[in-house]
DNA sequence: GGAAACGTTCAGCCATGGCTGAGCTACGTT
DNA sequence: AACGTAGCTCAGCCATGGCTGAACGTTTCC
């Protein structure tokens, strides 16, 4: 399914080329597991996967991951129970939960206080952002910037705000996610398929036309002045480029 | 705190500050223990947990916490007895009690001896406020501000009072807690779920609709004039922003 | 014991955002 | 230069989210 679209090679978003951290991904649906692990590996993480709670605990013991991505709904045991076991073996093992967007789930109440959680269906950008945020917190990598800058464009993740030459710009949630994806991948060509896979939820059925639309919206709000930052590579994709070094 | 400034946005106070103090959390219910320790860690405390009186005394001896959060009702020994033991080993060990809200008077008598207490079910904001207040008293951290200010909005925690451009405003307890939470997290987007989890009691079953209502009340009482301070980020949450950087 | 304040829910309205399809423009290939 | 294709933009529809006022129940304080 979706993963086929992003067979590209140079997808590494990593600030670092080497391993950022060791992750354990736990989900019983093979599709989700593959989707996540493939794209996390692309982003520079070392990934081990488990399909149920028993496996999760087992692998966690052996590989001592830096963080666990954990589906709440598992065939054998509750995600919280797994988290409990993990915490037993290591006081501070950070967990990012995956959960259905049910709303009425009262279990979810406790979740939000956990290290973090993402609702299904998610976009890869969302998951990556959470993981990085949690790692930043738990390791005290506080100097990793929460603010991105390209040319006179600035984006603050925490404040969820964007400035162009100092003046605040209002972006819709999707516009924001798209710009964020561009900025994290400054200087890298992104195909429409890649963008679709990362910015839109994995169950989105539509075609690449949306991407064109949203790039258009973004340009209008954020890239009207010279030098232009977002460039079209006909037949290939888009790039956000630092001015100057073009 | 100074070092945080370097990351640009963080308005101090917040989630990402370095270790504020070492806490020992004692409660026999795992849920409460996890709830508290997760959110205290998020707020920058170093946390160790214990499930009963024996463990509590044991850990207190070893780690010498700066403050103990102590459930009054423990399986093996009375919370007051534990507090007694703690005081034996360190004259001035501050204790914040957790107690059921059933108001039997003899318990309250004992509570007067505590530095402070919070009744269950509590909201995280309440607990955090107590802990910070006690730490401020006992170790003279007088530089921790008791008065918060954003634009022409001022809030005094000790006096439990709020002013908008100098004129006092009457807020209900919930309104006050909500505004306090906003002000402590100035510049940070807060989802309705987060707000619900921090401002409302942990056993509150309702949905995020209440948050909308209370934001509405708050705006009416406190944010009628330009420039507006409380902003809605559709589909994301709310932010309280310093004016100017609008 | 009564009145006021407070907290919660709900329903209706309004605004915003997401997506699509169609027409148009720009590109670049031959 | 001309054709075909890719990309851009816009308008419009639909769904969702958010705001507010009113109603109801509960607590608090005289």
TrEMBL record, chains A, B:
Q: Which UniProt keywords apply?
A: DNA-binding, Phosphoprotein, Transcription, Transcription regulation, Two-component regulatory system
One Pfam family this chain carries?
Response_reg
Question: Residue positions of the PTM 4-aspartylphosphate?
Answer: 71
**GO molecular function terms noted in the UniProt entry:** phosphorelay response regulator activity; transcription cis-regulatory region binding
Keyword Translocase found: no
Q: Name one GO biological process term.
A: regulation of DNA-templated transcription
Q: What range(s) does the OmpR/PhoB-type domain occupy?
A: 145-242
Q: Show the GO cellular component annotation of the record.
A: cytosol; protein-DNA complex
Q: Which residues bind DNA?
A: 145-242
Domain named Response regulatory: residues: 22-135
User: Which superkingdom, per the lineage?
Assistant: Bacteria
Q: What is this protein called?
A: Two-component system, OmpR family, response regulator
Q: Which organism was this protein described from?
A: Streptosporangium subroseum
């Amino acid at each position: 399914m979706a993963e086929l679209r992003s067979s590209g090679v140079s997808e590494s978003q990593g600030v670092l080329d080497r391993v950022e951290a060791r992750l354990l991904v736990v989900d019983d649906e093979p599709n989700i597991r593959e989707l996540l692990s493939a794209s996390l590996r692309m982003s520079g993480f070392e990934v081990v996967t488990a399909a149920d709670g028993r496996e999760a605990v087992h692998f966690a013991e052996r590989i001592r991951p830096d963080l666990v991505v954990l589906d709440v709904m598992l065939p054998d045991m509750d995600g919280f129970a797994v988290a409990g076991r993990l915490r037993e073996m290591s006081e501070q093992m950070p967990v990012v939960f995956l959960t259905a967007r049910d709303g009425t789930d009262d279990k979810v109440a406790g979740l939000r206080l956990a290290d973090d959680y993402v609702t299904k269906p998610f976009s890869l950008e969302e998951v990556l952002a959470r993981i990085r945020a949690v790692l930043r917190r738990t390791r005290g990598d506080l100097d990793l910037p929460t603010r991105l800058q390209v040319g006179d464009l600035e984006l603050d993740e925490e404040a969820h705000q964007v400035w162009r030459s100092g003046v605040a710009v209002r972006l819709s949630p999707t516009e924001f996610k798209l710009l964020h994806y561009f900025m994290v991948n400054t200087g890298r060509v992104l195909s429409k398929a890649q963008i679709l896979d990362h910015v839109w939820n994995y169950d989105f059925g539509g075609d690449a036309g949306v991407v064109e639309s949203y790039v258009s919206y973004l340009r209008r709000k954020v890239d009207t002045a010279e030098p232009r930052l977002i460039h079209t590579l006909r037949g290939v994709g888009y790039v956000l480029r630092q001015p100057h070094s073009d």
